[in-house]
Design brief:
Low-confidence stretches: none
Mean pLDDT: 93
Keywords: Amino-acid biosynthesis, Aromatic amino acid biosynthesis, Lyase, Pyridoxal phosphate, Tryptophan biosynthesis
Helix content: 40-55%
Function: The beta subunit is responsible for the synthesis of L-tryptophan from indole and L-serine.
Structural class: alpha/beta
Strand content: 15-25%
EC number: 4.2.1.20
Strand order of the largest sheet: 1-4-5-15-10-11-14
Protein name: Tryptophan synthase beta chain
Largest sheet: 7 strands, mixed
GO molecular function: L-serine hydro-lyase (adding indole, L-tryptophan-forming) activity; pyridoxal phosphate binding; tryptophan synthase activity
């Protein structure tokens, strides 16, 4: 039989995370303190994050050891399987070879525990008692709730209001692990009350939810904030995905020509792509086409501006240089809630500026159609976010068919859609619609960007 699943034993799990900052040819622009206009110091970040994570955020070391306590929990689902999508290849009648790394095997059903577990661990050893966070579709909130239960931490989650109502089972999952979940914007914070006063019917955004979580975190010395994407240390933790995939593709005697991932804040794309890009940057392997797929309803990479901006709506965070639609941008309530963020990871934005990745934006109807094609061939129903990567991989495979070439495609199936059935119900009922922003709407969203000298 042709092999379709590649499993590596626990003793071959990556012993360290990979930090691409050691290999990129041009350093990432500094993070700016909005009060002083100067690069931030560790002291500026200490009210929000514990020192071990701040050290990871600024580290230039290529490898950062994964603590044994984190490894022990990772082993409950890692290494995750790598699949050869032979039935999908047959359904598409493509000469391409398609592989996918399946992160839906985690207890939370997505890649998010890869960073939730270490973030909870580092906060615990730093004496922290409570973590606050935001969540869009609920995968990140679910993962931090899970991690909090492992390390006996109280968890408060500000869930984007449209997703809070769209995804009650995600909310129930978080609450089952002891987390408190609030619809954002909420009446729990000044940031939330301010939004509701101006926009009582606001459906929320990740930027608003971040503002609420950060505000609560800085009010108490035993509380810190945890972020599920965007920041350097989050992308770092996710590289276990790509590092495992490297070993698994060696087992398959193959190497990718194309790597595809969906992008909201950038963490799952970085997780699959950065270890391969690092080998390319060090001259150890051939160049790969990296495709970052985002929703047309939140086109950060394809229509956003590369500029300094706040990471949240209430402008409580430092200024980072990233591809952004403006911190006040509130995306439409598409079901891919985890991709509805106004900005993009500074590291990923910087790498795009250096020309190493190719961004694409897809409308949601085509992504759901691709997800159903994938499910009927491979037996896994993807999360709405993951459907964007599925769509990108299918398009690349069909391009191979048109051109009559065989290329190896790898994509990250970052989570299953078992908690997202309402999205599929709405799709099948014809209730979903596509939407793309006009240049005038984008210009209006970008009008309020902060001015940063230099």
């Amino acid at each position: 039989m042709d092999k379709s699943k590649y499993i590596i034993p626990e003793n071959l799990m990556p012993p360290a995370w990979y930090n691409i900052q050691a290999d990129i040819p041009v350093p990432v622009p500094p993070v700016i303190n909005p009060g002083t206009g100067q690069p931030i110091t560790p002291a500026d970040l200490e009210p929000i994050f514990p020192m071990p994570l701040i050290e990871q955020e600024v580290s230039q070391e290529r490898w950062l050891e994964i603590p044994s306590a984190v490894q022990a929990i990772y082993q409950q689902w890692r290494p995750s399987p790598l699949y050869r999508a032979r039935r999908l290849e047959k359904a598409l009648d493509t000469p391409a070879k398609i592989y996918y790394k399946y992160e839906g095997v985690s207890p939370a059903g997505s890649h998010k525990p890869n960073t939730a577990i270490p973030q909870a661990y580092y906060n615990k050893i730093s004496g922290i008692k409570r973590l606050t966070t935001e969540t869009g579709a609920g995968q990140w909130g679910s993962s931090l709730a899970l991690a909090g239960s492992f390390f006996d931490l109280d968890i408060e989650v500000y869930m984007v209001k449209v997703s809070y109502h769209q995804k009650p089972y995600r909310r129930a999952f978080m609450e089952s692990f002891g987390a408190k979940v609030f619809p954002s914007p909420s009446g729990e914070t000044n940031a939330g009350r301010s939004i509701l006063e101006k926009h009582p019917e606001s459906t929320g955004s990740l930027g608003i939810a971040i503002s609420e979580a950060v505000e609560k975190a800085v009010q108490s010395p035993d509380t810190k904030y945890a972020l599920g994407s965007v920041l350097n240390h989050v992308l770092l933790h996710q590289t276990v995905i790509g590092l495992e995939a490297l070993t698994q593709l060696e087992m398959a005697a193959d190497y990718p020509d194309i790597i595809v991932g969906c992008t909201g804040g950038g963490s799952n794309f970085a997780g699959i792509a950065f270890p391969f890009l690092g080998k390319q940057l060090r001259g150890e392997e051939k160049a790969i086409k990296f495709v970052a797929v985002e929703p047309a309803a939140c086109p950060t990479l394809t229509k956003g501006k590369y500029a300094y901006d706040f990471g949240d709506t209430a402008q409580l965070t430092p200024l980072v240089k990233m591809h952004t639609l403006g911190s006040g941008f509130v995306p439409l309530g598409i079901h891919a809630g985890g991709l509805r963020y106004h900005g993009m990871a500074p590291l990923l934005s910087h790498i795009l500026e250096l020309g190493f990745i190719e961004p694409k934006a897809y409308a949601q109807l085509g992504c759901f159609a691709a997800g159903i094609t994938f499910a009927q061939a491979e037996g896994i129903l993807p999360a709405p976010e993951a459907n964007h990567a599925v769509k990108g991989a299918i398009d690349e495979a069909l391009r191979c068919k048109e051109e009559g070439v065989s290329k190896t495609i790898l994509f990250n199936l970052c989570g299953h859609g078992n908690f997202d059935m309402q999205a599929y119900i709405d799709y099948q009922a014809g209730k979903l619609q596509d939407y793309e922003y006009s240049p005038e709407e984008i210009a209006m969203a970008l009008a309020g960007l902060p001015v940063v000298a230099g």
